[in-house]
Amino acid sequence: MKWERVKLGDVTDSCLGKMLDQNKNKGTPQPYLANVNVRWGSFDLDDLSEMRFEEHEQERYGLRYGDLIVCEGGEPGRCAIWKDEIPNMKIQKALHRVRVHNDLDYRYLFYWFLLAGKHGALDQYFTGATIKHMPGDKLKTIEIEKPPLPVQKRMADILSAYDDLIENNQKQIKLLEEAAQRLYKEWFIDLRFPGHEPPPSTMAPQRGGRSTQSKICVFALMLVVHQVERNQTIGTMPAFYGLKRANYRIVG
């Protein structure tokens, strides 16, 4: 089973985003992705800026599900797969939009970039002595290994399954952390823990009153914190050619 070695420009369509120019930009204000919004494998969508785009620019700068969004500068090559998280999204000039042809799986291409980026294989395509960039003409010349499409899909399915597991565990961790913070505030700042009020019939504490209840509350909170810490270890991900995902807490 032969793996081809092809240039990225032969198996994808790519373009650079729109330049931000408040004096020249026309059209309707729309959200866009900048370099700072792109992480390895994910997007930071909490604080998006807007730029004016005209109707005829929708096709060129607009994103589709499965587009690979690649950083041109900052950390050139850092990328993530767009999955229609926000409708009608566009990109700014510091980003490339890479759209695969039918014989290339976009997930496989992402993992290829991840591997190449973490092992310095993209450095040869950078320009600039101090501030690194990867312009569009260099991006198109990147050579990638392209196995048959069924093999690409199989590799991407395996790795994506682990990514989905990691993402689900991270969501659970976030929920547990929020629960622990709410519980801590309610019990130890607002002092509204169970048993904090004396029985209405008497002011004297009864057996199993505040002292015991306080200990129970502390113990319960410790259990919540322990659960959060235990879930920080979110499983073992097999190495993709020896690669461990950055920004993920993995043991193995």
Protein topology:
Elements: E1 4-7, H1 8-11, E2 12-16, E3 28-33, E4 38-39, E5 42-43, E6 49-53, H2 58-61, E7 68-71, E8 79-81, E9 90-91, E10 95-100, H3 106-118, H4 136-141, E11 143-146, H5 149-189, H6 210-231
Parallel strand pairs: 3-9
Antiparallel strand pairs: 1-11, 2-10, 3-6, 4-5, 7-8, 7-10
Helix pairs in contact: 5-6
Give a quick summary of the entry:
This protein is of the alpha+beta class and 252 residues long. 36% of the residues lie in helices and 17% in strands. It contains 6 helices and 11 strands.
Any key phrases for this structure?
252 residues, alpha+beta, 4-stranded antiparallel sheet, 3-stranded mixed sheet, 11 strands
Describe the protein's architecture and organization.
The chain has 252 residues and is of the alpha+beta class. It contains 6 helices and 11 strands. The protein has helices at residues 8-11, 58-61, 106-118, 136-141, 149-189, 210-231, and strands at residues 4-7, 12-16, 28-33, 38-39, 42-43, 49-53, 68-71, 79-81, 90-91, 95-100, 143-146. A 4-stranded antiparallel sheet has the order 2-10-7-8. Strand 7 (68-71) and strand 8 (79-81) form a beta hairpin. Helix 5 runs antiparallel to helix 6. 22% of the residues are buried. Residues 233-252 have low confidence and may be disordered.
